[in-house]
Amino acid sequence: MIILALCVIFFMLWTNYKKKEVPHHSSIKSQPALVDNTSTRPASYSTKDFKSVLFETYPDVYKNLNFKQKPTFYVIPGLIQSAAIKYTSPNQGQPGIAYDMDPQGLAIIHHKYLIISAYSKSKTFDSVLWMLDFKTGRFIKTIALNNIDHVGGITYDDDHDRLWVATINQYQRAQVQSLSLKELEKYNIKKQKRPIKFKHGTNLAAPLRTSYLTYHKSKIYVGYFDKIHGGQLFGYRLNKKGLFKKDKYENDLAIPEENWSTYSQIQGISFDRNDILLSESYGDFNSQLLVFRNKLNKPNYNLDLNQADKTIILPPYLEQIIGKDGEIYLLFESATALYRQNPNLVHMDRVIKLKVKYKDGIISEK
């Protein structure tokens, strides 16, 4: 009886986590619409087919999309090709075209811009930021960064108009660097033909690397996971100027005030009202959005999977998330050139928004 019960439980978990069978739909035209050498057309589906695939494979996700408020989706630019600066020879340091950009980070600036970070899978081009019009979804421009880092976490400090980007220093340790809104708006890759310059770089005492980060109430929360040590989240309080406090007795490293353990496969974090949202994804199994009541001020509290107050099943390869104004913005990497070769994946070539409501202080679906 015990063996039978375990088999039933395993089957239920497998049903919940296994990949959905993806129905076949005709691909859209491969020739991209371009703005300054960056593709703006969806990489995989027409709008009609994208809706159909979501409806057939993830009906619970589809029913929570907000079709009343436009744009319903944000097409991820640059998946077919992107303007970028060459990192390797030949033509090192010169403008070129990358065909292997992988989206990782997501930020919203004053309901004016939506920013997506991406890196070159082959490391032959510098990483980039793609800037979109938040209200229309229209692609504005590509911003080339002066590194080949994973840029798996970006976040915007609305209080000081500063975009923070997770990077790696020369010692291969975690670092964060920033760009002002003025610098972002002014930059033009076509005219400048070189990467934008970071400001206010800070080396972090922990974690060793940065998988994700977010800004919330004068703090930057930085997280990391690996298969051996699991996941950790660190809280850094910024000073009045919105900058990290450096400890001169610790080689000018920023020292975290707090830390918590987390589930080991976290890709993104966001705060919304009294909730903490974590995106969990690894490999081509279904992703999860984990929702926790914010109890970070309680001693010995950790963001483990079994502590989540709600779990929402999502397509594979979920990356950064943002909870804002009763909606959750979700970025996936499943429509990159590499993953588009897998016919069994839903290729999420758009940022989607889930409409949520609050019940008893916790996010729930519509």
From TrEMBL:
- Organism of origin is Lactobacillus hominis DSM 23910 = CRBIP 24.179
Xref: SUPFAM superfamilies: 3-carboxy-cis,cis-mucoante lactonizing enzyme (SSF75011)
Q: What is this protein called?
A: Uncharacterized protein
